[in-house]
């Protein structure tokens, strides 16, 4: 097996597995930069996956054909944003413990979606969708030497969308007034309030953006990888996205890099059997790599990860 | 009349969980109405799924056992101001360690059983030590570390079973009978449910938690650290040591919960496709139980009952059993958002005056 063959096997799988993580980690970024911890990313992905699959099935039935999964991504964004209001209301307005609220959101998401699936389909999982988001060859670019086979042949458009979203998020968070306001309420809400920024409103926006992004992340996972929805369709990807966010130090491009890295680890645990020098490495090391690395990053062994300063604290007007 | 009664802070503390449970059940009823079912039929099917048969009652007590221990684990950490989301992982390693000792060690029951239980507790304690140590030494937030440790526990345990303990059916061998908590007597009086002696261990653990927290110097220090870390430091307490100790003890309770599953309910450990959910329910149990022994016991009874009764709701009333997870999630929401309930209670108090 030549190096080229190995790369042609690993690189597309990496980008493809990273896409849902990138979207969801960016979602977590908006919420946490505004000062609201979002442990509920996993649950929001579940909602997104459910919405993506059920809407696609419905639209297929109406005859939308290959457009169905793409329209469903939009639905997943909207439903994800709406569902995240649970977390926003509890943790911002009702001053609930943000971590507890996130945990409850995860519970609620799985319970509610499987409940509805049982109600609609009469069984624990949905039917498979006919039209998935499929692999495409990108015209022209696919013929590039070297790069073509790695990045532009049999790829998902959603992967490019995810990478573009990360770059846009980077610009928005660091180079726009909105981004400045968002970061200010996450670092020093009191000072932001003094400057006339509506702290709670910014936080609501942050949390709803997290719902929108995690929603599309879940839907992308369901519509590219799974093809149907059940209670265990999303199994830890939300927490892995959270890990990517922390490992990437709450920076959009950092999160992008970390998500790609975790995608690589995942792809190696799948494709590793075919790669000569990885065959004897137990899969378990690659499976736990993202989690162990996050712990090490937090402990400062991989460079100190600095969280937004006001994270986790409800804002009370007039308090310091 | 009512405001005098409401004035006592303790009553408010009991009212909030009760109101939360009530609200959770009401919303559950609304959801049933929404899908065109009769809530009374649904809830009575749920109740008869718990109390209708001594077998189901035995199963509820069986279900309560790990829930109590997981709830105690979360509650104990909460008292020191720590949030242990890692109960699930600590439970998994505890389950594996106890089963491993139950299979690999050969000894008379008087030694073997305590040894297997201890192995479970120690494995959980070790899994709690890591986030505790990182918190004390590097100021790393325990929530993220414990979440990550959950996944490490899941994958490593599956790997160890697959590599060293595999038996047909994607699981380990059965443990030797000398390490088993199974009780023919308890089974026979509950129409052969899987109720086992672990239930008494869980009750005993409630007493232990109460004793440690309220009757020992260690408990006083742990609670003090939970109330105000800086004041405790100033008073000469070793905050870092207490943080580590709290996580170790919390993990020990969680590991014990796993040992109950391994030595009592199942007698083996399967390769897990995902989390058991017991650890996460433990968070709900601790929150609802206001981090007290008696509260944890009662909350475990409620959630154990809901879980055991849910399948009956499906078979008798055609309501998906997931309704129960929705109700549990909503109860957590309401407890966590008790700000709203407190607000209403305060309003009532003022009007009464």
TrEMBL record, chain A:
<feature type="transmembrane region" description="Helical">
    <location>
        <begin position="36"/>
        <end position="58"/>
    </location>
</feature>
<dbReference type="Pfam" id="PF02653">
    <property type="entry name" value="BPD_transp_2"/>
</dbReference>
<feature type="transmembrane region" description="Helical">
    <location>
        <begin position="284"/>
        <end position="303"/>
    </location>
</feature>
<feature type="transmembrane region" description="Helical">
    <location>
        <begin position="70"/>
        <end position="92"/>
    </location>
</feature>
<protein>
    <submittedName>
        <fullName>ABC transporter permease</fullName>
    </submittedName>
</protein>
<keyword id="KW-0472">Membrane</keyword>
<feature type="transmembrane region" description="Helical">
    <location>
        <begin position="155"/>
        <end position="174"/>
    </location>
</feature>
<dbReference type="InterPro" id="IPR001851">
    <property type="entry name" value="ABC_transp_permease"/>
</dbReference>
<feature type="transmembrane region" description="Helical">
    <location>
        <begin position="99"/>
        <end position="121"/>
    </location>
</feature>
<feature type="transmembrane region" description="Helical">
    <location>
        <begin position="204"/>
        <end position="223"/>
    </location>
</feature>
<keyword id="KW-1003">Cell membrane</keyword>
<keyword id="KW-0812">Transmembrane</keyword>
<dbReference type="GO" id="GO:0005886">
    <property type="term" value="C:plasma membrane"/>
</dbReference>
<keyword id="KW-1133">Transmembrane helix</keyword>
<feature type="transmembrane region" description="Helical">
    <location>
        <begin position="6"/>
        <end position="29"/>
    </location>
</feature>
<dbReference type="GO" id="GO:0022857">
    <property type="term" value="F:transmembrane transporter activity"/>
</dbReference>
Automatic annotation (TrEMBL), chain B:
<dbReference type="InterPro" id="IPR001851">
    <property type="entry name" value="ABC_transp_permease"/>
</dbReference>
<keyword id="KW-0812">Transmembrane</keyword>
<feature type="transmembrane region" description="Helical">
    <location>
        <begin position="323"/>
        <end position="345"/>
    </location>
</feature>
<keyword id="KW-1133">Transmembrane helix</keyword>
<feature type="transmembrane region" description="Helical">
    <location>
        <begin position="55"/>
        <end position="78"/>
    </location>
</feature>
<feature type="transmembrane region" description="Helical">
    <location>
        <begin position="85"/>
        <end position="105"/>
    </location>
</feature>
<protein>
    <submittedName>
        <fullName>ABC transporter permease</fullName>
    </submittedName>
</protein>
<keyword id="KW-1003">Cell membrane</keyword>
<feature type="transmembrane region" description="Helical">
    <location>
        <begin position="294"/>
        <end position="311"/>
    </location>
</feature>
<feature type="transmembrane region" description="Helical">
    <location>
        <begin position="12"/>
        <end position="35"/>
    </location>
</feature>
<feature type="transmembrane region" description="Helical">
    <location>
        <begin position="195"/>
        <end position="214"/>
    </location>
</feature>
<dbReference type="Pfam" id="PF02653">
    <property type="entry name" value="BPD_transp_2"/>
</dbReference>
<dbReference type="GO" id="GO:0022857">
    <property type="term" value="F:transmembrane transporter activity"/>
</dbReference>
<feature type="transmembrane region" description="Helical">
    <location>
        <begin position="142"/>
        <end position="161"/>
    </location>
</feature>
<keyword id="KW-0472">Membrane</keyword>
<feature type="transmembrane region" description="Helical">
    <location>
        <begin position="243"/>
        <end position="260"/>
    </location>
</feature>
<feature type="transmembrane region" description="Helical">
    <location>
        <begin position="266"/>
        <end position="287"/>
    </location>
</feature>
<feature type="transmembrane region" description="Helical">
    <location>
        <begin position="111"/>
        <end position="130"/>
    </location>
</feature>
<dbReference type="GO" id="GO:0005886">
    <property type="term" value="C:plasma membrane"/>
</dbReference>
